[in-house]
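Practice problem: P-II family nitrogen regulator
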Amino acid sequence: MKEIKAIIRPNKLASLRDALVALHEFPGMTVSKVEGCSAPNRHLAHHNIKEQLTDYTPKVRIEIVAPDEVAQLIFHRITEVAQTGHFGDGLVWITEVEQAAFIFKTTPGPAT
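Answer key — structure tokens:
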């Protein structure tokens, strides 16, 4: 199993969701609001401490756990849909998942 994580622009979330849900193998995803900043540009100096402390941009973090054979398809779909061609479009990466299971109960059992 793999975990696909992505940081994208918030305005790309709806189109990305539609593109992922269209995949027959799509397992679902978790979405969080986050903030981030890029690496500092070495050619432009910050003017004051306030700018250094407030230069965070709203982003969306997506987390998906999927079977190995589906992970690359999801990865490529994210990179295709989330891009605008500008710096700050985001980041997507895949990590190995040793074990994962859905948490649900299918049959009633004794109360504990």
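Discussion: The chain has a mean pLDDT of 87. Students who identified this feature from the tokens alone can consider the problem solved.
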